[in-house]
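step: validate -> pass
step: tokenize input -> pass
step: predict -> running
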Amino acid sequence: FFGSRRIVASDFPSGAIGTGDQFGRVLTMGDFNGDGTKYLVVGAPFTDAGGVDTGVVYVRTFGSPPDVRITQSTLPNDVPEAGDRFGWSLATGDFNLNGLAELAIGVPYEDIGSVVNAGLVQVMPSITGGLIAIGTQAWTQNSAGVPGSVTSSNHFGASLSAWNFGKDPATDLAIGVPYADITTTVARQNAGAVIDLYGSAGIGLTSTNSQLWSQGTTGILGDFESNDLFGFALY
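step: predict -> pass
step: emit ->
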């Protein structure tokens, strides 16, 4: 444990320790500015930041560039609402092949219009100076080309995983939708699904060739049952 450090929310600009914030509930890391160093990203999804349990994401750089505190108010396409739990899940990857990591942030309790807890995933781009809000992508099941549809309590973005799934060198993003109702020949409530979005050079994540996987998909092993919550966790 030589060189280990204790990190709390109050170490960050505008950060404060709050009861029940669950600082550190989820972690990831990425090189957001191309200096060869991977920075620690910390989710605190029950932090009050513009509302109760809206959520905060912290980026710890241990020096230069400065540490970052990200909220829904930081981004151009979102507003904080009570219970959104911004930062419930996190993933990083080079989705646009610019040599820098981008940051995907799950907001699975986000209401989409009048649809409660439908879920949202925000993807922040990076430049050589680090993460930026401009150009952030907001993905929901209402986004053109994304499989499925916005449905109450789907919790789109409850889990995230960034890997290259094979279409080109860009990193791709798997999004868990564990409370999705899936219908093949019969309906299964809360059976769960995983949606894959593919990265592309110069563009980033797109819905082109996106896929939806469930235990109702031909070739996927396991019984197709209600309340399976397929996609609840991703690696």
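step: describe -> The longest strand covers residues 206-213.
step: cleanup -> pass
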